Amino acid sequence: MQLDFVVALALAVTFFGVAAKPAAAACLLAFLYALGVFLLSAVSGEAGARRAAVAVVATGSLLYLSRVAPAAVGHEALLGAAGGLACLATHRLLVRIPLPPLPPLTGRTVVVTGSSAGLGLATAEQLLERGATVIFACRSEARGRAACRAACSASGAPPERALFLALDLESCASVRAFAAQLLATGGRCDALICNAGAMHPERRVTRDGWEANLACHALGHHLLARLLLPLLRRSRGRVVSVASCLHHYGDPATLLADPMSEASYSLFPAYARSKLAQVALTAELQRREGASGVVCVSLHPANALTDVTRNFPAPVRLLYAVASPLFRFLQPPLADGAATTVFAAGSDNVSSLRGAYLERCAPVACAPAARDEAFGRRVWEMAEGHLSPWLAPLGPSQ
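The structure corresponding to this sequence follows.
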């Protein structure tokens, strides 16, 4: 169970404030906390930054009142309580992500890529808890099977509802083998959750000759969705793309002109472009599958604290580890980070999900390029051109 750091700190400040000035201490804490939440959401490009800005103004006003109000016991108590409540409200309303009520998922089969750890594992646990059968699509068999056992233990689900199938999204041969195995079993796929991802500080090329960010986030997942469409059409299923609000920073022109980052490579621009491609491809897939009943949705899983720096140099990983206790104040836990993904996979409000981009379990605006139909067609054509050798139908069910 995750320790609620904000509640613990608020209690500590209140206790300390008995001997000091509780109003000033509590209001300062509330202001700094709201400011930290705002800065993190604004820098990352979250739509929720506007609400966080309101919290900064409100807590700043409380801080000002705590400085100018007469030093009376009643004023101190009232403002101190208001500061503490503002701090907790910021945490509950702007950091935590409650999962809306969902119908039972009993009988549904959901594929979750990258489910051996992090957000993928948290997503799988919640799906199992709600009755779904989850296929853990991971590169490492050892880690994947360990994740199956851990998820069943955490959710109380029986082992037969957590299945492992090998999948390496950086290899088109592996993607085809995964899809062929799933199709050959005659099973079902009610949702494909395209969750796997990584950030590469240096340009890396996959065995198929593609830049690794684009290969994993966009091309590999696009190929997988295309190959699994027979099952998804049969169940009127869903394609859920776990993207990132950083896609707002992706440059559309560079994505089309230099998709493999051959001219130059920089970590965050390349990552942002790959996420822009992922969101645009999901939107275009929805336009093409509108009549089939398949629902395609992309989302930002919030700035949850994950192992995103695992491929970074050791000094960066160390710095991230040292700073992680501070981040825990500002970022939602993994279970909350997975909430929007679980909502997209399980909500019965299909009309609001079709073609949507979600943050915090609600539709918000994605980048203009990502929803532009002409740009979506060009990204689709680029992806299909790279993937053409691997797009042949798999078996008679196609």
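The mean pLDDT is 90.
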